[in-house]
Amino acid sequence: MNSLCLPLIAKREFIEWRRDGRLLIAGGLSLIVMIAAVLVNVQRQVVAEGKRRAAEVLDYDSWLKQGNRHPHDAAHQGMYVFKPSPPLALFDPGITPFSGASIWLQAHQQSELRFRPAQDATGLQRFGTLSVSWVLQVLGPLIVIIFGFNVFSGEREQGTLRQTLSLGVSTRTLLWGKALALHGVMALILLPVLIATTVAVLYASVSAAALSDTALRLLLLSVGYAAYVSMMVFAVLAVSARMPTARASLLVLLGLWFASVMLAPRIAADVAEYLDPSPSRVEFNSKMASALDAAYKRAWAKELGSEKRWGGDVPLDRWGRALQVDDHAGYTIMDQHFKRLWDTYEKQNRTQEWAGLLAPMLSLRAYSMILAGTSFYDHRLFSHAAERQRRVMQDIVSDDLVKNADAHSHTHGEQAHFTYQADARLWASVPRFSYQTPLAKEALGRSVVGFAVLLTGLALAIGAALWASAHRPE
Length: 474
Hints:
By secondary structure, the chain is mainly alpha-helical. Helices cover 73% and strands 2% of the residues. Helix 9 (208-242) runs parallel beside helix 17 (448-470) and helix 12 packs across helix 13 (360-372). The two termini are 25 Å apart.
């Protein structure tokens, strides 16, 4: 009998939501906001990708058509490389607005991503970018609260809860019936959004391989967000079952929402920074410059017989070799310092991910960005690829200087090193930059912690709801 009551209980809740306007107003507005987020991000993605492709072509063409010039001058001009936007960035842009999308590859130093959209935004940017992921993470719990804050406490006030239980319906059956209703209304709101998002991201996948990979990522994202929404459903049911009045239930739930969604991210970031402090830009640059100076001295003394960089001890007809030695001496130092910095950021992110045990949005946010391909890890991979491209370019230029400029100096005098000019054949020997985002299976491996935290939170929420419904206040 109890199992047959579940659809009836859920139907009653839907009738109540339709009568008081929540189904039409709250559900309709939520659906409109999410569909608007999809459309806005599709437009943003199309524009951004169009600009990126055009910039890639123009910048590389500029490199190829720079004319005859000294290779070292060309290396200082360098080139820009641009980070491709993964299809699921229109669902979750992640850290892209804060990290930038292009890197200038120049001689002698490793650059960082530039042109961050957040630099041109207002202070509201720190609350997030309008996207489907942001709406689900931040406003999703509010939607559940609107529909579920009074499912137990409201009936208790009206006296209908005691009447329902007197008919032989168990508290557990009542709980599952109301959970079915809340899951049903959230599915009613979210399924159209899921369909619209699926159409948009699959359309953005330009190849069969990208299509299958994106579909897998979207499926995994759907599972993670479903766990998050379900967790919110049972958490709301637990509070509603324990509160004596609907007003008290609403106040408690809004307080919990504000603490977990608005306060927790800031607190978690501060705690992560305290546990694994990262250096300031000035401190990082100072330490790396000091280490580079020491490495340069050792390399110059070993390879060129002089600790003084660019001094008169090294003849001009060996400056091509000197540039080669100088660059290779710096590679290891840059790798060490950037690895240490990025490892620190990874630890901070992991701390915030585990903080999802207290504020589930934190673990969902990490899980979502990893599977969308917009996480810090993806930013790090692209930076590594860009640095490899810079070193390829620099090594090609340095090799040409050693083979031609230094040799030119031997036959035409030392100053002839600076009059040597390479032509378009050298510029064309630098390959066009190409970057592929990691496959979904790699992203899945990195999302295990976030998903495990979400499942733990879901289990705790179900347990709390079962306990609260069985120990309700009279």
